[in-house]
Amino acid sequence: MKSYLKLVQMELHRFRWILLALMGLTAAVQIIAVIWKTKQGLAVQLDAMNRIKDTVNSSTKIDVDKLTFDWVIFSTPKPFILVILVSIAALSFYVFFIWYRDWLGRSTFIYRLLMLPAARMNLYWAKLTSLLLLVFSMLSFQLVLLPIEGWVFKLLVPSVQRADSHIVDVISRNQLLPMLFPRSFEQFIYFYGMGMTAVIAVFTAILLERSYRRIGILYGVTYLIVCLGLILFPVSLLETMFGTGYFFGTEIFMMELFMFLLVLGLSLWLGNRLLSKKVTV
């Protein structure tokens, strides 16, 4: 256990600057987008008030639509989505980099890791754990960032010109945020369970390539295709064979769950076998 925790700490330490850079980029882009759209909304609001003043008595109370933070989020989808996709791409790249860095680095650091007096699967679990911690660190940072952006919005807009927004409404107004923060626990497990299964399958493909080298590339790609085929089988092939609507939604969900668990178990078993038996120093 001590060896595993040290390996996790090492992986997180090596990625710390990239993580901080991603957080800084996310904060900068999103806050600038909020400021820009808020000022644009204030300008439109002021223009509407001036036009109303020109057509009604000066003593008449002027009422225009108030600005809301969820409207700002809805009106700035591209900067939010783009910077989130950049973070997702960086973490996806790290799925490969976390292994190949040790093999291709100076003095092939992987050999020293594999010779540690501990189970080799500790290295596997440490890399997987560090990736999950990085993902949830970015998610937590995004959740903290939204109230900060809401505070910036309130600083820019006088209280009489704005209306309050609930954090749930803010998240739902963006195209990508509801996928990152599902409302139900079942959806959370489903989305992130799929992501974790995909990462474990890729880990196994990498170990196939490292175990068999050139021919291992073919083995790894073939393995990923087989995993994808197993996952798509209930939705695509069965409905093609029996027709849409033949199976109930619950039945398809249970079949998909079984396939995900099958891919997950197969990947863990094969990864353990490759790391223990085939990857040599």
Question: Can you describe this structure in just a few lines?
Answer:
This protein is mainly α.
Describe this protein's structure:
This protein is mainly alpha-helical and 281 residues long. It has a domain at 182-281. The protein has helices spanning 2-55, 69-75, 77-104, 109-114, 121-156, 167-172, 177-180, 185-242, 249-278, and strands at residues 67-68, 162-163. It has a two-stranded parallel ribbon with strand order 1-2.
Strand content: under 5%
Largest sheet: 2 strands, parallel
**Total of helices:** 9
- Distance between the first and last residues' Cα: 23 Å
Shape: elongated
User: Radius of gyration, rounded?
Assistant: 25 Å
DSSP summary, beta strand count: 2
> What is the helical fraction, as a range of percent?
over 70%
Task: Spell out the helices and strands N to C.
Answer: HEHHHHEHHHH
SS-based structural class?
mainly alpha
Q: Regions with pLDDT < 50 over 5+ consecutive residues?
A: none
Mean of pLDDT: 82
* Strand line-up in the sheet with most strands: 1-2
